[in-house]
Amino acid sequence: MKISTLIDTNVLIDVWGPAGRETKWSASAITACRRDGALVINAIVWSELAPLIATEQALRQAVDMLKMDREFLPWEAAFLAGVTHSRYRRAGGIRERTLPDFFIGAHAVIAGHRLLTRNAARYRGYFPTSISSLRKPTRHDRHAQMIGKLKGTLDEIDEDFCIVDVHGVGYVAYCSARTLAALPQPGEAVVLFIETYVREDMLRLYGFQSVLEREWFRLLMNNVQGVGAKVALAILSTLAPTDLANAIALRDIAMVSRAPGVGKKVAERIVTELKNKAPAYAGTASGTIGLKQELGEGVASAPITDAVSALVNLGYSRDTAANAVAAALKTAGEEADASKLIRFGLKELAR
User: Fold this and answer.
1) Which has the closest alpha carbon to 253: 266, 241, 243, 234?
2) CA 94, CA 18: separation in Å to the nearest integer?
3) Which among 77, 76, 100 has a CA at the least distance from the CA of 88?
4) I need a labelling partner for 6 at 20 to 30 A (CA). Which of 31, 111, 144, 339 fits?
């Protein structure tokens, strides 16, 4: 007896995304299901694959290569998905809109398909009879799937992403405006440092022109409440990593809040949460950032504070004055008085 199988998005991401320990397993599972009968995907899976594949034509070719049928979502499945989501809400679920997984699971039930998924536990509570269970990937497996760098040919630059061709495969990388502006012309060689964002049903790549920029992206995402990928990219589009480190060290909330989508409260959280991390993420300017952090917290020595204030009174910005005094300290020594620091600082500014 032939059994048709609806393929969940996460299984196809394993096969078409970055190679990892789940790739071989998922490919074998698809092959085994093909021996049993037809392979099927629906429009929900199609839409969730779109961020991974550069063009609709490329996605269509990839689906055709696996000999998968594209099937319309039955009206009855849409109704069942809504009813199932209502159960989810009554059980305490917080998502207001019907979840994509419920459309996929309901489609499998109504059409009589077996469902091949890597996230069987999520489906089994609502659609227990249609699941072909796979083991849940371990933490090590998830890390094994990460892409750290792309080296290839720049294929296209769009408003907020670019496409890098690596041996014929086009990878979509979302970037800050600063990174996009620094890219070469399409057709030329390019290297991007990558942060890979993986969920059960989505894979997205974020590209950066330097390792330092990528580290700041991670720092913002992982340490500041209310800062997601979109806001982190907006901040890095507005401020270079060294400027961001300066702003945090000097507690310059106004500078941080210049980024689109960053209000005063978010800027305050960024400055507060990252104040002790700025020197470590300042690149080659870590000594200067350390001095600026002391200034921002009001604990710098009197000669340093007086020297910076004097240069600011002469019309220089606080950031420029702090840079000059930090350079002066290297020449004049840590024991120098304010007048000596001012004199050496003015020499630095005159260069």
Assistant:
1) 266
2) 31
3) 100
4) 144
What is the tens place of the pLDDT at every residue in 271-307?
A: 888 876 654 445 444 445 555 444 454 445 677 777 7
- Cβ neighbors of 37 (< 8 A, separation 6 or more) are 2, 3, 4, 5
Tokens of residue 33, six digits? 């299901």
Return the structure tokens found at 342. Answer: 């001012």
Tokens of 51: 């961020």
Q: How many H helices and E strands in the chain?
A: 18, 10
Query: DSSP secondary-structure letter at 135?
Result: P
The residue among 142, 275, 274 whose CA lies nearest residue 196 is 142
141-199 pLDDT tens trace: 444 446 788 999 999 999 999 999 998 888 999 999 999 999 999 999 999 999 887 66
- Quote the CA–CA distance of 30 and 36 in Å, as a whole number: 10
Task: Give dist(CA 253, CA 327) in Å, integer.
Answer: 25
Is the pTM value of this prediction over 0.85?
Answer: no
| Range with the largest mean pLDDT of 23-27, 106-110, 220-224, 294-298 | 106-110
Task: Confirm if 6 and 115 have CB atoms less than 8 A apart.
Answer: yes
Give every CB contact of residue 196 below 8 A, 6+ residues apart in sequence: 18, 145, 146, 147, 148, 203, 204, 205, 206
On whether the CB atoms of residues 8 and 119 are closer than 8 A, the answer is yes
Instruction: Return d(Cα 41, Cα 52) in angstroms, integer.
Output: 16
CB atoms within 10 A of CB 129: 9
Q: How many angstroms separate the CA atoms of 266 and 215, rounded?
A: 19
Using alpha carbons, list the distances in angstroms from residue 73 to 37, 44, 61, 130, 172: 19, 8, 21, 16, 28
pLDDT of res. 300? 53
Are the beta carbons of 345 and 328 closer than 8 angstroms? yes
CB 27 within 8 A of CB 11: no
CA distance 104 to 45: 8
Give the pLDDT confidence score for residue 17 in this predicted structure. 77
